[in-house]
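Course assignment 3, question 2. Fill in each field.
Student: A.L.
Task: Predict the tertiary structure for the chain below.
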Amino acid sequence: LGVVALAAPRLLATQWSRFTDPFGDHPPYSSIEFKVEPGDTRIIYGAALDVRATPVGGAVEHVQLTFHPDGQSEESVPMFPETGGTWRATVSQITADGTYYVQGSGATSRRFHFSVITVPELRDIRVRITPPAYTHLPPYNGPVPERGIVGLAGTKVEMWAKSNRPLSGGSIAFVPGATPTTQPVVQPAPVALAPIAPDAAEVLGSFVIATPGKLRLTIIDTANQPSREPYTAAVTVLKDERPFVRILEPKESAFATPDAKIDVNIAAEDDYGISSLQLFRGLNDARATAGNLPIPPGQPTHVSTVVPIDLGQYGLTPGDVLKLYARVEDNDPAGAKGSESPVVTVRVISNEDFNRMVVAREGLETLEAKYAMAARRLEALDNQLAAKQAELKALPPDSKLSKEAKEALKKLERDLKESADEVAEAAKEQLPFDVDKEFNKKLEEMAKAMADAAKATEEAGQGNPSAGKTGEKLDDIRNKLGGKREEFKKEVAQPLDNLDKIFPLIEDQARYVELWERQKDLAERMKSAAPAKPDDPKAKARMRDLETEQRRLSQDLNDLLRDIKDHAEKLPSVVGPFVQAKAFPTPMTLASALAGVLAAADAPAPNPDELKDDLGNLKQSALDFVRDVRDSGALEKMNDAAADLGAFDGATAAGKAQEAADIMKEFIEEANAMGGKARGLAPLAFAPNLVHPMGATIDQLLAAEGMQPGGGSGASGGFSQRRSSLRNTSLYGRIPSRSQAGGTRRGASAAGPGTPGSANGTPGQSGGRVDSGKLQASGESDVAVPSQYRQKVGEYFQRVADELGQE
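Answer field:
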């Protein structure tokens, strides 16, 4: 025995085990041994048993797996070889405990045990989410969304849970989300799950979304065993947001002749549906009256309505003021929520004033393009000359020009002549700005320099010149044009660029006046809501709307003060000699004062620091204005008014809103139009102006566009106006402008940029035109926006549109 133990220890151990334990699991000895994976194991009910066997001590030709479920007969399946000498077999649908072993080529492994985990396992969760009927939205069917279950309060949710075992039921428990400590915690009752059929492996339950939080779903099999891990998902309750409405056209500041036809373009949006849309109209100081506008069946989420107004039917005269604003309400069954648009002011003007304003706007739009064209021409010609110089330098200096080189010189000559002619034509186009008259001299000089360069280029290519001589002539031509280019950049292009930095402060003045007018208008509308009974649902709804508008005005004022500070800090630093006001043949206007004084002159001002000091005064006065308005208490009064509206105290809110308007008015300089008074180089200062009467308002606005002597900005050029008040002002009338005469615009009205007034409307209709499709102003796309962020995204883009001046 000792010799056998030393020579074959595994043989002795095997035989000894079989002798001492004859009824145990001890396979006969073999020189080949199997390493079996996974050995003793546990398997989820209904899962597969995957067995791998690796022979050690020799090779085998075939291997089989024998398994014996408890209470059933023994079965064998062949195993298949894999790389590395391993054999593999899989037994599917294991539903009972049992044993298995591997055998092959005279070798047998021991028996291994497998046991079945009978706890049910969640395999699949699907839902049907049905929004409330008033939303007109289809139900969602499919897996639980990645963001969890999201819906309005009242949304019905049906959940199906599938398992690997027959189920008897289950439950859905709810964990409420965080709530304020002042509110009681509402614990929703659990929802029971029931099998869809007897002994089915799927259960169903439903609930209605009421509170945010999380749900925990568990299932129970027919042996009363619960699932080991529950399924959890977030439950988000959406808020039915307030609708919003805007009057896209006319713009907030508009001018029209007494016989004009105006198309009032109204855009309203809501997240789930619009139930009511109204247009309020008021003439002069009369109370505005409401007119209901038709809503398409089905309560769409987007409504675009065009309401034609023929001013000729009302017998208006220049000086009359028509005020328009719209109100929208949604279809929330818990109580309709509404909002109102900013007030649109349409001032009636004479045909003469209308014609002058149209000419001013078109001239101002072409001012920058006129000089930018000349700068581009100079740039292109310089590049051509540089390229030709490089070609000539690559040739031997004594070499004669080839035929191709002479043709290239002729082409350069033609381009120079063409540029000279185009710049000369631009110089002949007189725009109604004093600064244009001064800058035109530079265009004439540039056109002459280009013509001289063309003649010199022609002479350089005559005869049979050498590459060296031609290159020297081109060097001289380029140097002369380069001098004109630098002169033009310094005396024309740079001043116009600096104007971009100065003019935003002038526009900010008009924005402040507009904010004051909006606050005054809101305070006036609050007075009509003050006598309403606090227990009246419609009165409370309107107070909530007014509260939202008041908070928005407070935020707008905050944003404006921040913009003024930013614009002041970005003012350019000015150094060097500058032109005197007397260099202009006529009294200087605001536009010429801001742009013209930045141009170098042959006769510089005696004190070159005048403009530098002027800009310093403008910067400091703007910063002082921001500080004084913040310290005045206007913002606090606006916030207090909003808080009182939130408490449904309309009378107190109206008083505080009026106090805020009165405080804001203290910072507005009441003045008549400056008429023929020259601003010249008088110190620039940040001081919003309110100009009276109506005729003075027109003069002031035209002065801002450089049409007549005067200073200051327009009376109320519209909130967040950009570049010029006229560009963001709607004009309506029957006098054709120059572009209309040229056939570039249809219709009899001249509306704002990109909105051709009544040309796209349908004058004469009594009910207006309604379109419930997607609005161009809504910014819709096919990209999915999470529901809880949709309203915030909409408000963001609405603010962007406002800041861009609705262009």
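Instructor remarks: Residues 575-611, 670-684, 690-725, 735-785 have pLDDT under 50 and may be disordered. Residues 467-529 form the longest helix (63 residues).
Grade: pending
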